[in-house]
């Protein structure tokens, strides 16, 4: 991993309504959680709030690598124009979050690797191209991880997002090493 001696990976599943994260050391789950958007707050203010929360999260976890799931910018089939426009706004806001996370990591010397949703699912051992429920994703994460955070359950809609964050953290180091080897210099610019 980067020059940082810490080998932990912070996996992030970003979104404008809530952002899930999982902090792993190999397959050992150190912590997980989510950041939630405040209700009825203008996006510019919410973005600043997320940036502050992400800065605090990076300070608390001190990861050696951040693995973030990118957003699929293509609308699904059978969508109305209103749904497509709404998805475009959500996609733009998620891209804002990813950009802010990259800047925060660069300021701290933490490498960032971006994963597609398919790569995140593969990190959980799930076949890409299939629709997996939140519960299926959470079960896959529980099977793969040494869950030392027993005070919180994996339930509700959040379980799928936290599982995807864990999938990103599981898959991220391998993708980072591949990118570093491909770059031919053994390390990536952050």
Please describe the structure with a list of short key phrases separated by commas or semicolons.
190 residues
Question: Can you describe what's shown?
Answer:
Strands 5-4-1-2-3-6 form a 6-stranded mixed beta sheet, with helices on both faces. The chain has helices at residues 43-61, 81-108, 117-123, 134-144, 158-183; strands at residues 9-13, 18-25, 28-36, 65-69, 111-115, 146-147. It is 48% helix and 18% strand. Residues 1-5 have low confidence and may be disordered. It has 190 residues and is α/β, with parallel strands linked by helices. The protein starts with 8 loop residues before the first strand and ends in a 7-residue tail after the last helix. It is built from 5 helices and 6 strands. It has one domain (9-183): Nucleotidyltransferase, domain 5 (2-Layer Sandwich). The radius of gyration is 16 Å and the shape is globular. Helix 1 runs parallel beside helix 2 and helix 4 crosses helix 5.
Query: What is the structural class?
Result: alpha/beta
Shape field = globular
Q: What does the largest sheet look like?
A: 6 strands, mixed
For the record, the CATH class is Alpha Beta
Q: Approximately what portion of the residues adopt beta-strand conformation?
A: 15-25%
CATH topology title:
Nucleotidyltransferase, domain 5
Overall pLDDT: 80
Low-confidence stretches: 1-5
Radius of gyration: 16 Å
- Structurally, the number of domains stands at 1
Continuous helix count: 5
| Beta-strand segment tally | 6
Q: What is the helical fraction, as a range of percent?
A: 40-55%
| CATH architecture assignment name | 2-Layer Sandwich
- How far apart the termini lie comes to 12 Å
What is the helix/strand order?
Answer: EEEHEHEHHEH
CATH homologous superfamily?
Ribonuclease H-like superfamily/Ribonuclease H
With strands numbered from the N-terminus, the spatial order across the biggest sheet is 5-4-1-2-3-6
């Amino acid at each position: 991993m980067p020059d940082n001696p810490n080998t932990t990976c912070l996996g992030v599943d970003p979104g404008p309504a809530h952002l899930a994260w999982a902090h792993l050391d190999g397959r050992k789950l150190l912590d997980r959680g989510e950041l939630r958007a405040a209700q009825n707050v203008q996006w510019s203010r919410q973005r600043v709030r997320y940036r502050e929360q992400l800065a605090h999260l990076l300070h608390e976890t001190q990861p050696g690598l951040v693995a973030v799931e990118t957003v699929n910018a293509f609308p699904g089939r059978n969508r109305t124009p209103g749904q497509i426009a709404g998805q475009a706004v959500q996609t733009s806001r998620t891209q804002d979050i990813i950009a802010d996370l990259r800047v925060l990591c660069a300021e701290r010397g933490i490498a960032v690797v971006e994963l597609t949703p398919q790569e995140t699912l593969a990190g959980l051992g799930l076949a890409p191209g299939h629709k997996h429920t939140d519960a299926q994703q959470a079960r896959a994460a529980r099977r793969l991880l040494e869950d030392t955070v027993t005070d919180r359950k994996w339930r509700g809609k959040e379980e799928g997002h936290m599982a995807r964050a864990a999938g990103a953290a599981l898959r991220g180091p391998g993708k980072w090493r591949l990118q570093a080897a491909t770059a031919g210099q053994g390390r990536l610019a952050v």
